[in-house]
Each structure stands twice: as structure tokens, then as C-alpha cells.
Amino acid sequence: MKKQSKKVKKELTIEQKISRRNFISFTSFAVLAVGAFEGWRWLYKSPQEITGITGGTRKPLRRALNKTEIFFRRTVFSENHLVKTYPKSMAAKHVRVNSDIGVEASKKFDPAAWKLVVNKKAGEVLQVTLQDLMALPKTEIVYDFKCVEGWDQISHWAGVKFSDFIKHYQLDDYAKMQFVGMETPDKAYYVGIDMPSAMHPQTLLAYEMNDKLLPLEHGAPLRLIIPVKYGIKNLKRIGTISFSDTRPRDYWAEDGYDYYSGL
Amino acid sequence: MRWCHWVNFPILTIMIWSGMLIYWANDEYKITIFGHTFFRFFPDWFYNTLKIPHRLSEGMAFHFLFMWFFTLNGILYILYTTISGEWRELVPKKNSFKEAWLVLLHDLHIRKTAPPQNKYNAAQRIAYTAIIIMGIGSVITGLAIYKPVQFYYLTWLSGGYHFARILHFALTLGYVFFFVIHIVQVILAGWGNFSSVISGFEVVNETPEPIIQTTTEDEKAE
After folding, report:
1. Less Cβ around it within 10 Å: N or C end of chain B?
2. SS3 annotation, A6-51
3. B119: pLDDT confidence band, cut at 50, 70 and 90?
4. Which residues of B touch A262 (CB under 8 A)?
């Protein structure tokens, strides 16, 4: 009798051990699973940010986008990293028109009367004509234009390097600020660009596409071509340029997109 | 490392879901052979059931947050597996490719006997190692399309921006395919096997192969 009970006891302890282990691990698994689910629910139902410079997305997601921007700007962004360029022959003949906000055909616009307005300190304004810009050194680029939507197209542009423009008009002090803001003449479309991206050697104030002056739907007379950004930042028909140390307003950042949108 | 496995499951689900929110904005991939389109990714009913349309910015925001967790979890797994020496159980051996065929025949009930195995059989070694390599591939092609200028070398490595995006997409289809097979296998392997992935029971308890052995014995008995 004694022997038997001992045996039974021994077996029980092993099985108890097994079931205890199982109980502990299954309980912690369940707790963690519920925790993960609650965490997800918290994130999914978290309140929308209040629309200011940015808007349209959940608060924690916006915080994550901004932190991620800082991470990539500090660790990998370099002026020396250039977008890949292609031979002219590979450039698309029919360049995709994806948006006409701020350059709608129905809007009255006279390219001949256009002047680029650069807002300087204390209300000082610099006005530049297309002829002035065309007198500056011309830079060409054939690169793969990339849209947030996921499409890309090799296209050919020419104009003035933004950094050349800054130098020529002695705006160097302004280029020490953090951001550039650009808006269409009707102020319907607007972008904010961090200075390192604006001063990147491949950023152009472009007035030509495929060796011809820009067509209206591609932003005549002058548009921004900034290969280190998605298409949403490549503003068509630049009306004004201004500088600031805080983020200028940005059309798509107000609608849930990453402010940086850098490539 | 089973924790990584379970952490990966919801993360990958979120990555695939947010990836679809992004893909919807320009859903150009289809399977076309000799000019005939057999399948378009994805049909409208699919999008509508999953409420995918018009959520590009939301998808990007989620994708660019959870990419961190996906990558960190993957790094953790690889570090652990390498340092602990558990990779020896996982990485295919010389004879694994031959054996995997036998395992497949056995699983399809064409062959009665399965080759002997330790923790993982030959087919599992190949599949589980492949899925880790695919994970690395997703991170590389992902970075290649996320920052193609800054990570130009990754973009070059992935065959260019356009091709990298196709690879990124194809890898995701691979996960879904893997998942389907995986689930079927888990159901076939039974509850004991499943619970071991939660408790780590047979790993800790010095009896390395009770579950797998019983299944093979069961099938032999049949």
C-alpha cells in the first residue's frame, strides 16, 4: 500500500508540474494577447490630432511619423545621396498629370504676367521674372518621379537649382533657417520643405519639361522639382516662396500624410 | 524563440493590412500570361469587404510605425537563434532538400514513412528558414522603396525602385501562402503541438520529441 501511494504521488507531482507549467504559460499568453488587443484598440480608437500644420491622422501615429522623420534625417539623410538619373531617351513623352489643385484650367491665369514673389524679412519682397531665372545657370535632370500612391515615372526637367537661386539672390541668411514654404498664386496648394532637402543639389525650380517650357497642367511657368520628396511636395506653379524656422503649412500634411515625405 | 513568433503574428497582420491600404491607391499588379489577364490584385468585392479604399495616408502611418516593431522583432529573433545555437535545429542541412521531398510525400499520404527528425523535419527547416529570409527581404525591399534616395544601394540591390515594389508585394503574397499551409499543418499536428508553441513545454522539459513522435506513431498505426 505504502509503495503504491508513493508511486501515485510521484506521478501526480510530475503531472502537476506539467499542468502548472501549462497553466502559467497559457494564462500569461492569454493576458499578453488581451493586452496586445487592448493596445491595438487604444491605438485604433485614439483621437485625431487637432488640425494645425498637420492634421487628419491619429495623435500617436502623427507622433510616430515625426519621430521617424527625425530618425531618418539624423541618421541617413545626406546631400551626397543623389537620386538615380537616367539618359534622356528613357524619359516619358506623356508625363502623367495627377493633380490640378491650385492650377485648375478653369482658373484665370496669365503666365506672361507672372512673377515669383520671395518674402523676405520685415515685409520686404523680392520679385523675379521667368527671364531672370532663365538667365541663371540651367540644370537638367532625368529621374524617376515617385508618387505616394505608388506609381513612378521617369521624367525630364530643367531649371535653376534651388541652391543656385539662393546664392544668386544672396538669400544665404534665409537658407540658414529651418524651412522653406511655397504656395501657388491662388494659395490653394502649398508645401513646406525642410531646408536640407530644399538645398539638396538636385532640387530645381523647374521651367522646362522634355526640353520645352512647362505646359500649364504641369505647373507653368515655374514649379518645384524635388527628387528627394514624393510628388505631393513637388508644387506646381510657384507663386510665393518664404522662409521660417517653424513648419510652413502643407496641403497634404493637413490631410493625414507625413509632413516630411522624404525619399 | 516562440515569443517572437507570437509577437510577429499580429505585427505581420497589421503590416499586411496597412500594406493593402497603401497598395489600393495604385493597384496595378496582375497576373497576365500571353496577354490574358487571369487575376487582378484585388477584385472590388475584396476591397469593399475589408474597407480598404481611400485610406492611403492612414495605411502609410500605420505601416511606418509597425515597420519598427517588425524589424526589431526580427533582429531579436535572429540574434537569439544565432547566439543560443538554436539555428542548428532550423537551418537546412545538406540532406534536407532530399528529405523534404520525402516529408512532402508523407504529408500527402503518398508515402507511409517519414524520415527521422529532431525538432523540425527537413521540410520545416526549409520553410522556416525561407520565411526568415523572406522577412529580411521584406525589410530590405521595404527600405528600398521607402527611402530610395538615401538607401540607393538597397534599391539597386532590389533591382530598382519599380522592381523592389513588386518584390515587396510578392513577398507578402508569399506570407499569405505560407500562412495557409502553416495553419493546415498546425491543425493536422494537433493540440499537443500547438500548446507546446505557447508553453515551450517539450523544449524545457528535456523530452525533446514526444509530440512529434506520437503523431508519427499514430500515423504508422493507421
Report:
1. C
2. HHHHHHHHHHHHHHHHHHHHHHHHHHHHHHHHHHHHHHHCCCECCC
3. confident
4. 147, 149-150
- What pTM was computed for the model? 0.84
- CATH homologous superfamily for the domain A59-95+109-255: Oxidoreductase, molybdopterin-binding domain (3.90.420.10)
- Percent residues over pLDDT 90 in chain A: 73
Report d(CA A236, CA A123) in Å as an integer: 24
Among residues A160, A136, A155, which one has the least CA distance to residue A224? A160
Question: Which is nearest to A197 in space by CA: A221, A232, A233?
Answer: A233
Among A70, A81, A259, most B C-beta atoms within 10 A, so best to mutate, is A81
B61 within 8 A of B123, measured Cβ to Cβ: no
More confident residue, B216 or A178: A178
B199 contacts in A (CB within 8 Å)?
21-22, 25-26
User: How does pLDDT run across A24-67, given as a tens digit for each residue?
Assistant: 888 888 999 999 999 999 999 999 888 889 888 899 999 999 99
Euclidean distance between CA atoms B131 and B137, whole angstroms? 9
CB atoms A22 and B201 under 8 Å:
yes
pLDDT of residue A8: 54
SS3 per-residue string spanning A70-97? HHHHHHCCCCCCCCCECCHHHCCCCCCC
| Residues A249, A97, A210, A225, Cα dihedral to 10° | 20
Q: Do B57 and A57 touch (CB under 8 A)?
A: yes
A73: contact with B, CB 8 A cutoff: no
pLDDT, one tens digit per residue, over B19-67 is 988 888 888 787 777 777 777 778 878 888 888 888 888 899 999 999 9
The ipTM is: 0.85
Say how far apart CA A160 and CA A207 lie, in whole Å.
8
Q: Which residues of B touch A82 (CB under 8 A)?
A: 149, 152
Treating both helix axes as pointing N-terminal to C-terminal, what angle do A2-44 and B191-199 enclose, rounded to 10 degrees? 70
Answer for the pair B124, B59: CB distance below 8 angstroms, yes or no. no
